[in-house]
Amino acid sequence: MTKAKETHISEAGFIDDLLADVAQAQPSVDETLMAKVLADANRMQMQHQHRPTPTAPSLWVQFQQAIGGWPALSGLVATGVVGIWIGVAPPDGLTTYTSTLMGTTETVDLLGLGLDDLFEEIVDG
Amino acid sequence: MVAEMATKVVMIKVKSRMPAAGDISPAVCALALSRLDCQSMTSQAPIVTDIPDDALLIAYANGDPDAAQALAARLLPRIMGQAVRMLGCQAEAEDVAQDAMMRLWRIAPSWRQGEAQVTTWMYRVVANLCVDKLRKRAKGVALDDIADPADDTPSAAEQMQQKARMQALTNALATLPDRQAEAVALRHLEGLSNPEIAQIMDISVRSVESLTARGKRALAACLAGRRDELGYRDD
Questions:
Q1: How far is the C-alpha of B183 from the C-alpha of B162, rounded, in Å?
Q2: Which residue of A has its CA nearest to B233?
Q3: How many CB pairs under 8 A join A and B?
Q4: Last residue in a domain, options B90, B110, B137
């Protein structure tokens, strides 16, 4: 075994002994320290007690959070208002456009006889 | 009185309406109450020792005035031991202990039972605080106020020897990288197992082995040639 290797092994053993010796240190807890710690505990406990108790959010807040908060809510309201406005007072261009796109409704009497006439004939016999 | 305190701990929690403070399981309540019955019939053993740390912590958060005392009496000796062994200085260790306990009181309302052990959390906090102290400490600080070892009234020479050894070790620890110093201290000064250290440091067991091995080699290199000076003989 080389000299360097022997030295390394003996140093390692000495470190183990040193760690084991220091590991035996068991200090006592000073009464002053205990008093300080308990004073801290009491002070913090008072703060915890005065903190507002967390409560469950209201249904309105839950709804608002579910749809994505104020931005989503304002978008929803704006869309609704515009929808109502268009329904009540549609712009001229929109009426023409929908007529062109979807056509207009026509009533065709395939029998050449009005319903009123038909009912009159049945009633009169 | 202790029995009264334990009853209070349990009853306060049962009456509590603080959802953020977690919940004490029915098993804990049953255990505490059964111990109460046992004690009233048999011995005067402190039944509060049977209540888990986290249950006491939640009771503290819910306003129990006695829970803090029970927790401090249980945790402070362990914290002081860890801090003194890492720092080698009573005054610094007391600062660390007070700081660590303060952090515990502060976190109490948001502690959730069963998620972590108070002792694991505390080992981590104390180790981190000690490493911070080691970093800030000037080299060669006098250890006049170091705690005496607990063994049978050592002579003045032995006390001096022990102080010198502690000073040498803490100064050497201060030269190590933080994680190595923490791992070596937890393994060799606190006597914890590698899986326990892995949990405390939030790393793998393999990493713990690597850190402790490298840490010990670094300590050996730092303290090379001081064996005789520190009173260790080559057997």
A1: 22
A2: A14
A3: 122
A4: B137
Q: Which chain B residue is nearest to residue A15, measuring alpha carbons?
A: B220
Residues of chain A found within 8 Å of residue B216, distances taken between Cβ atoms: 12, 15
Within a domain: B99: yes
Q: Do A22 and B101 touch (CB under 8 A)?
A: no
Nearest CA in chain A to B18: A53
Q: How many domains does chain B have?
A: 2
Pick the closest to residue A34 from B155, B136, B23, B97 (CA basis): B97
Residue B114: closest CA among B206, B28, B196:
B28
Distances (CA, A) of B70 to A41, B7, B133, B181: 11, 13, 28, 31
Query: Is residue B68 domain-shared with residue B152, that is, in the same domain?
Result: no
Range(s) of the domain holding residue B104: 1-137
Based on the fold, state whether residues B229 and B119 are members of the same structural domain.
no
For every one of its 235 residues, what pLDDT tens digit does chain B have, with 9 covering 90 and above?
Answer: 444 444 444 444 434 434 344 444 444 444 444 444 434 433 343 445 678 888 999 999 999 889 999 999 999 999 999 999 999 889 999 999 999 999 999 999 988 877 788 999 999 999 999 999 998 875 555 444 455 545 555 677 888 888 889 889 998 999 999 999 999 999 999 999 999 999 999 999 999 999 999 999 999 998 888 878 888 876 5
Tokens of A55: 């409560």
